[in-house]
Amino acid sequence: MRNRSVSIIFGSLILWAVATYFLFLDQQSVGKDQDKDKLANQISRLEKQVKQQIIINQELLEGINENKRLKKEYERINAALQLKDDTEKNKDKKHEVNKNKSILLQKIESKNKKILENEQEPTQDTILSTEGTHNTPLRQKLPDGSPIIAILVVSCNRITVERCLNQLIKLRPSKEQFPIVVSQDCDHRQTADVIARYGNQLLHIKQPDQSDIEIPPKEKKFRGYFKIARHYKWALNQVFLKLGYSTAIIVEDDLDVAPDFYEYFLGTYPLLVNDSSLWCVSAWNDNGKAGLVDEHAPHLLYRTDFFPGLGWMLTRDLWLELAPKWPKSYWDDWIRQPEQRKNRACIRPEISRTRTFGKLGVSNGLFFEKHLKYIKLNEQFVPFTKMNLSYLLKDNYDIAFVNQVYQSTVVSYSELKSGNIVAPGPVRIPYYTRQSFKNTTKLLGLMDDFRSGVPRSGYRGVVTFFYNGRRVHLAPSANWSGYDITWS
Ligand SMILES: *[C@@H]1O[C@H](CO)[C@@H](O)[C@H](O)[C@H]1NC(C)=O
Ligand SMILES: *[C@@H]1O[C@H](CO)[C@@H](O)[C@H](O)[C@H]1NC(C)=O
Ligand SMILES: *[C@@H]1O[C@H](CO)[C@@H](O)[C@H](O)[C@H]1NC(C)=O
Ligand SMILES: *[C@@H]1O[C@H](CO)[C@@H](O)[C@H](O)[C@H]1NC(C)=O
Ligand SMILES: *[C@@H]1O[C@H](CO)[C@@H](O)[C@H](O)[C@H]1NC(C)=O
User: Fold this and answer.
1) Best exposed site among 159, 364, 366, 408 by fewest CB in 10 Å?
2) 418 and 365: one domain?
3) Which residue stretches, if any, does this entry annotate as coiled coil (predicted)?
4) 24-57: per-residue pLDDT in tens?
5) Is 69 domain-assigned?
């Protein structure tokens, strides 16, 4: 706790001093707007640095606490050992205890090493302070000004990560622009071997904390989700804080990617950094099954209030916001809560740029069989970086979207199915209750679930898809005023 308090106090002091200086200047000179801007920039940079330092310190603190826990355990075993007498009967027991003891000692040693490494890490500070002083952060842009976007591949114990890596490397337009970082959890030897074979085509990092996680008894069967959350937190800290990247795309180890995967993220990057109402770009359309998408419109993109995941891009700023409160498990449903989402949206494509080729392990196998495996992967290359995507900025998008949805012809499910609709253009199927939404989605083969009240791929309550040659909006009434989080 002392570590943290000291850094918080120190940080506050710096901020206070700079703020006072700023106020003082403000009173002294009225006409120096430029200086003021500079100072304001410096303050916000300082603020960011302090925030980063606090997060780093928290990491350290967690390491120390974990170490204390291990030490206690060690002492407990030692005490147990002394209580036992040395009779033949207890030999086996003693042997086991001794074995446990040495395992624990190893753990403590590696923990200590890790903490020490962390303390001596000059690179981290160098990266951060470079940003602070010169405003040219490391690993943010190529010399020609185009962005560097790290690809973070999240891996555990599936050697099929090879399939994903082969595609990522084959399609990658530039190693410098898209450095691949494979973060491996689980200490799985075969998977590590597979990743190691790629040599310097990627950076292979391993999540060092393999200790048992404390899990409430009722949630024991969800252990995997706890491990995933811990791994994500560590891996994202590495990418954004230690390696100093400012943008990353997270790819799970079971994803196929489309030919224009990189082009899609590069093209949408300016939207993500310019539009503060966006917090992610996702490669995934939750309702992107063949038969529900327009196969002739791979260029089409949308905004969605539903966080899709499954191949998604985020910025360091977002990570700095989420990291301090990162949950112990179920991070994807957590991120979808209003407290985290704060009304922000993601970009998603008409036709997915990723597809999962099979989930073994933590995720629900049934979900894969019923839905995921029918998602269509785009096959056509779309030159997004050469297109005008400003229609996706909130100010442009919302007006056009609401107009299109609520000026469209209202139809029923059976009319849509029969194909006997005379009016041209998009159509709308209204829903007013949770149950009528669910009934209609079941008939159409759409996803019927809600997370924090938001339906999959929904925007302003509207789920947009393609059916029988028609653009269709499954839409609430025009006076819709927000999601009802009791809909689940
Ligand atoms: C030694 O460790 C194993 C597994 O970690 C555990 O089941 C066992 O109870 C431990 N033995 C003692 C004596 O602590
Ligand atoms: C948005 O950001 C990009 C890159 O950061 C920049 O080049 C562009 O001019 C900005 N504005 C728009 C409207 O895209
Ligand atoms: C891009 O599209 C927007 C409308 O969404 C339009 O206002 C703008 O002029 C276009 N920009 C260019 C360079 O064509
Ligand atoms: C939904 O479907 C069920 C049975 O299929 C029906 O009983 C119910 O009335 C429907 N609800 C709405 C709101 O359409
Ligand atoms: C919104 O419109 C629906 C029907 O279009 C109506 O039943 C409902 O009462 C309206 N709600 C509000 C808050 O005006």
Assistant:
1) 366
2) no
3) 36-90
4) 665 555 455 667 777 777 777 777 777 777 776 7
5) no
Q: Which residues of the chain have pLDDT under 70?
A: 1-6, 8-13, 15, 17-20, 22-34, 56, 59-60, 62-64, 66-71, 73-138, 359-364
Q: Indicate whether 348 belongs to any domain.
A: yes
Nearest one of 238, 180, 178, 179 to 207, comparing CA atoms? 238
Q: Which long-range contacts (CB under 8 A, 24 or more apart) does 207-212 make?
A: 207/183, 207/231, 207/234, 207/235, 208/110, 208/114, 209/66, 209/234, 210/186, 211/66, 211/70, 211/107
Of all protein residues, the one whose alpha carbon is nearest to atom 4 of ligand 5 is 477
Q: Distance between CA 364 and CA 473 in Å, rounded?
A: 29
Residues 308 and 456 in one domain: no
Give the number of the atom of ligand 5 that is nearest the alpha carbon of residue 479. 1
> Which pTM value belongs to this model?
0.75
326, 196: one domain: yes
- The answer as to whether 99 is a domain residue is no
Same domain, 299 and 338: yes
**Does one domain contain both 206 and 353?**
yes
Atom of ligand 2 nearest to the CA of 390: 13
Cβ–ligand 2 contact at 273 (below 6 Å):
yes
Same domain, 253 and 359: yes
- Say whether both 295 and 435 belong to one domain: no
**What value does the mean pLDDT of the chain take?**
85
Q: What is the distance between the alpha carbons of residues 56 and 315, in angstroms, rounded to a whole number?
A: 18
Number of domains in the chain: 2
Residues 213 and 283 in one domain: yes
Pair 313, 269: CB distance under 8 Å = yes
Ligand 3 atom 13: residue of nearest CA: 388
Active site residue 448: no
d(CA 71, CA 81): 15
The pLDDT tens digits of the residues spanning 69-112 come to: 666 766 666 565 555 444 444 556 556 666 666 666 666 556 55
Does ligand 5 lie within 6 Å of residue 433's CB atom? no
Quick check: is 118 in a domain? no
Q: Is the CB of 388 inside a 6 Å radius of any atom of ligand 5?
A: no
| Probe target for ligand 3 pocket from 271, 303, 385, 388, with the most ligand atoms within 8 Å of CB | 388
Residues 393-413 have pLDDT tens digits of 999 999 999 999 999 999 999
**Ligand 4 atom, smallest distance to 433 CA:** 13
Testing ligand 4's pocket by substitution, the residue of 414, 435, 442, 474 carrying the most ligand atoms inside 8 A of its CB is 435
CATH code assigned at 274: 3.90.550.10
